[in-house]
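Researcher: Go.
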Amino acid sequence: MALKKAGIPFELVAYCEIDKFASRSYSLLHNVPESMNLGDITKIVPEELPDFDMVFHGSPCQSFSVAGRGEGGVKGSGTRSSLLWNTVEIVRAKKPKFVLWENVPNVLSEKHLPVFKEYLEELAKMGYESSFDTLNAKDYGVPQSRERIFCVSRLAD
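Model: Structure:
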């Protein structure tokens, strides 16, 4: 939606949503065929994906959230939040120009900060420069107060 609102042309090549109802909603809201849904990210073979310039991802937040169990997103832990590492492997294989990750601000808490730092380090090893900030949806025309961290990474020239 941000690209569309900014008037930046883009072509969606795929999306990944395991919940069939969320997939159907996404398809209808954005006028894209559900066949573009790759489904379970753990089943994706990154090398088989089409090339793309940008990837937007937001791993499930439950394991990072103060409302969740606080299990975190440690690589290989099998938590829902650890699915972010599957996207890192896609980035490693495809090297898009930009990566945007969204999640709950609690990612920056003392407990979860090591995972976030590791995420940034992995991207840096691949040549990405990253910056992040916490933004609230209410400041951008959304009728709810919903803080999220946004991390934008750019593949250095």
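Model: The domain at 54-155 is CATH 3.40.50.150 (Rossmann fold).
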